From TrEMBL:
GO terms for molecular function: oxidoreductase activity. Belongs to the short-chain dehydrogenases/reductases (SDR) family. InterPro entries: NAD(P)-bd_dom_sf, SDR_fam. This is Oxidoreductase. It comes from Streptomyces shenzhenensis. It comes from the Bacteria.
Amino acid sequence: MNPQYNFEGQVALVTGAASGMGLAAARLFARAGAAVVLADVNKDAVEAAAKELTDAGHQAIGVVCDVTDEDQAAAMVDQAVATYGRLDMAFNNAGIQAPPSDAADEKAEDFDRVNAVNLRGVWAAQKHELRQMRSQGSGAIVNNSSLGGLVGLPERAAYHASKHGVIGLTRSAAVEYAPRGIRINAVCPGVIETPMVADMLEGQAEAMAAIMQQQPIGRLGTADEVAAAAVWLCSPAASLVAGVALPVDGGYTAH
């Protein structure tokens, strides 16, 4: 059961909002009364997700955004502010996997692509969110890292590099902006039941089975469970929490 928040009069922005953890977070923000800006590279999917929320009586718009393009990230924030007048909360969730590879054989293009989305994309979104929040003197940002931001696993070097980078980005910005009334944190999901993980389960069954053996809770996490953590970090209930990388991983990193 999720806690009840009152985000009436507030505006939340979610990247990677068309599916998985992003869509789950957008739904939670909306149910708590926030106006929600859903951003995703997939035009049809993000428009459908926004329509789901507006059909349910919530305020929401869908914005097409490729976070690897800083101009699009800036335009995303500009559209949020133009539509709703402010920006109070952001969940920078957009991310991709990289194909598993021996570290000696990883392709430069795979490294560049996964870092462009997972790290540079978070950097660009956070940068332009902070510009708006700085002018307001308030706000909360949550960046989506991974248990791969906290540990290392074989054949995951490029992906884990991107997710470790998100934590460094989060911590540095958090200590810079906490004195200005803006809290920045990260969530580190474990093995979560999302479309991306479903593809991994199918294509990398043995590796995924080994990972699951290390997840003490004994099951996949859900997108709703990660969304609940992200929304809590944005809420006044987490008012003293800044610069953390919160594992949401069923105990994986407790080993």
